Each structure stands twice: as C-alpha cells, then as structure tokens.
Amino acid sequence: MAIFASSFIFVLCKTFENKPKKYFINVITSIIIPIILVGSVLGVKSATSQIKMMVARNEMINAGVSEEIINAIEEANRIGRYDEEINQGDKSNNRFAIWDNAVDIYLANPIVGISFRNIMEYARAEMPEGFISTSGFESMHNSFVDVMVSQGTIGLMLLFILVAFSIIAFLKSFNGYLEYKYLIAIIAAIFASMMFYSETFYMNTGSAFLFWIVLGYMINYRNTNTEVKL
C-alpha cells in the first residue's frame, strides 16, 4: 500500500508536469506504473521466500530430519496473516477486531479519550472481555484510531485541522520543482502506512521523524515562498 501510494503520487505529478493537458492518459499511467512496481516487489519477495524455504527443506532432508518435523517447522515459521488458528478467518490480521473494540473505548470516553499509554490498563479495567484486553494489543494499528482513543473528539478535531491545513498548503504551494514531488511521495507513503500501523503519532520511529521533517519543510516553503534545494 505504501509503495503504491508513493509511486502513484510521484508518477502522477511527473506526468502532469511533462504533459499537463493529457489528463486521462496521465491518470491511467499513474495507476499502471505503481501496479507494475508493486507487483514486481511482491513477486520478488514471494520468489525469494520460496527459494529460502526450498533451501532450508533440502538442508533438513540431508540432515535426516523427518517429513513431519519439517512440515511442523515450516508451519511454525509461516507469517500467519491468514492462519485460521491465529486470526479466526480475519484477513485484516485482527485489525477489524482491534478497531471495533477501539470504537467501544472511544464511545465510553468521547471527549478527551484515555491517553495513549493508558490503553491496555483501561481495557483490562473497564472492558476485560474486549478484544484488546484479551489479546494484549497496546496500540490500534492505525494512527488515526490511536488519536481517536487517546485524545477523543478534541484530538480528532485538532488532527482534522492539521490535515486540512496541510492539504491547503500543498495545493497553494504546488509548483514545478522535482524536489517537491519527492516530498509529496514520501508523505503519501507514510500516510498510507499510518492506516495500518501505529506510527508518526505517539511513536519515536524513523517514519515519525521523516514525516514531521518533510511536513515541516513543505509548510515552511509555503510560508516563506522561497525555494530550498535538497
């Protein structure tokens, strides 16, 4: 998702820059190229994983390991994203169950939330039968749901203002500089990742650092209206 979002935004900006009047062709190109790119990455990842499994299996066979033990080891090393025993058929890797419980917590504390570092303690004390309490998740695996639970409606309103102001700033400052398109692509990739991981808000991660540095540069560009070469 992050790769697609980043490459889509960058290719779209580049095609509109080079041929601004061919809107339909630009949009189609911006969709096809990211799909090819994502497909290539996933294909290489799958092929690499299969090769590693084959090499490991051959090594275990040569070492005299039985077929049952080999199968058990391979099963234990699987990612488990679609494993029925782990996810009970939830192809979101339990995210739907987490978000559903997060809504219950938000509705119980809709104004100011419960704070980010208090999620597990609150869930165990107030909703012991809920998915978050029974599964041990300490974050919502969605940065925006994290804000909703942690800071409630007030936090969501402030986040909405931040997003709205940033979009307006981007549109007003958009220009032909190639560097600017790189920055938008970076923001797009992190934004897409934020939909499925807890990062950027409340987290001290590389993505959070990069997000705020890039966003700050873009907002500063709008305010100063001067070009800063990267």
Give a structural overview.
The chain has ten helices and no strands. With 230 residues, the chain is mostly helical. Mean pLDDT is 76; it is low at 79-86.
Task: Name the descriptors.
230 residues, 0% strand
Low-confidence stretches: 79-86
The percent of residues in helical segments reads over 70%
Beta-strand percentage range = under 5%
Number of strands: 0
CA-to-CA gap between the ends?
26 Å
State the secondary-structure class: mainly alpha
Cα-based radius of gyration, to the nearest Å: 22 Å
In N-to-C order, the SSE pattern is HHHHHHHHHH
Overall body shape: flat
Oligomer: single chain
Main sheet attributes: strand count, strand direction, barrel closure: none
Mean pLDDT across the residues is 76
Please work out how many helical segments DSSP would assign: 10
Fold blueprint:
Layout lengths: L1 H17 L4 H40 L4 H10 L7 H4 L7 H14 L10 H8 L4 H5 L7 H31 L4 H17 L11 H19 L6
What's this entry about, in short?
This protein is mainly alpha-helical and 230 residues long.
